[in-house]
C-alpha cells in the first residue's frame, strides 16, 4: 500500500507542481487536496475537497493520511490587508496542521520563507516565523520547514516586480555565498518537499534554498 499525501495550497505556484509530482509518484497511493475553490483537476489518485478554511469543524476529520504538505499563501494585495493575509498564511495553515496532528498524521512539510523569524520586524518574515513556531509545537513526529529563495515559474496571478527581481537574482545567485537567494523553480521546490518527506527523521529539519536545489534535482 502506498502513502496518502494531504495538500493545502494546491492551486499556487508550488502547490500545483507538488500535486502533479505526487500524482506521478508511485510511492503515493492517494493525494487528498483541500481547496477554497475547485482546481478543475481530475485524476484517479486525486481526492479534492472544496472547504471553508474558516470552519475547520466541518472538515477536520478528513485530514487523515501519512504526510501533510502545506503550501498555502497569498499576498497583501490579493488578501486586501495584513490581517486578511495573516488569516490565510498563518491561521488557515495552523488550523489544518492542528487537525492533521490530532488525526495522527506523522509528518508535516511546510513551505515557509528564507527570512522566517518570529522576532523579525518585517511583517511577512515574522508571520512565517510564527507559523513555524506554532506548528512545531503540535506533536508531529517529523517536521520539515522548507525555506526557498525567490520562486520562479508561471503563477496563476503574476506579481508585479517579481519578474525583474527573478532576473536579477538569477545572476547574483551564482555569486559565492548568495546561493540562498537564487531563484528556484516551483517544481524544484515541490520535488524537494517530497524527497524531504521520504528521508524524514524524527524532529525538526530546516531546508534552505541551496539544499532544495540538491533534493529537487
Order of adjacent strands in the largest pleated sheet: 3-2-1-4-5-6-9
| CATH architecture verdict | 3-Layer(aba) Sandwich
Helix content: 25-40%
Summarize model confidence as the mean pLDDT. Answer: 89
**Can you write the helix and strand succession as a string?**
EHEEEHHEHEEHEHEH
Oligomer: single chain
Number of domains: 1
CATH-assigned homologous superfamily: NAD(P)-binding Rossmann-like Domain
User: Could you tell me how far the N terminus lies from the C terminus, measured between alpha carbons in angstroms?
Assistant: 26 Å
Give the tally of β-strands. Answer: 9
Look up the CATH topology. Rossmann fold
Which band does the percent of strand residues land in? 15-25%
Structural class: alpha/beta
Query: What is the overall silhouette?
Result: globular
CATH level 1 class label: Alpha Beta
Amino acid at each position: 500500500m502506498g502513502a496518502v499525501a494531504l495538500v493545502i495550497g494546491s492551486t499556487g505556484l508550488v502547490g500545483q507542481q507538488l500535486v502533479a509530482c505526487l500524482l506521478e509518484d508511485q510511492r503515493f497511493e492517494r493525494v487528498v487536496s483541500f481547496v477554497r475553490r475547485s482546481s478543475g483537476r481530475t485524476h484517479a489518485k486525486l481526492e479534492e475537497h472544496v472547504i471553508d478554511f474558516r470552519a475547520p469543524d466541518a472538515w477536520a476529520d478528513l485530514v487523515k493520511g501519512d504526510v501533510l504538505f502545506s503550501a498555502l499563501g497569498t499576498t497583501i494585495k490579493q488578501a486586501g490587508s495584513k490581517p486578511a493575509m495573516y488569516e490565510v498564511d498563518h491561521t488557515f495553515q495552523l488550523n489544518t496542521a492542528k487537525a492533521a496532528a490530532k488525526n495522527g498524521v506523522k509528518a508535516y512539510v511546510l513551505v515557509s520563507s528564507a527570512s522566517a523569524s518570529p522576532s523579525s520586524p518585517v511583517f511577512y518574515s515574522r508571520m512565517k516565523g510564527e507559523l513555524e513556531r506554532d506548528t512545531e509545537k503540535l506533536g508531529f513526529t517529523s517536521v520539515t520547514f522548507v525555506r526557498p529563495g525567490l520562486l520562479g515559474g508561471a503563477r496563476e496571478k503574476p506579481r508585479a516586480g517579481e519578474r525583474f527581481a527573478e532576473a536579477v537574482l538569477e545572476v547574483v545567485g551564482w555569486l559565492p555565498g548568495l546561493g540562498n537567494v537564487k531563484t528556484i523553480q516551483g517544481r524544484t521546490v515541490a520535488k524537494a518537499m517530497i524527497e524531504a518527506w521520504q528521508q524524514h527523521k524524527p524532529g525538526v529539519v530546516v531546508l534552505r534554498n541551496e539544499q532544495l536545489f540538491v533534493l529537487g534535482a
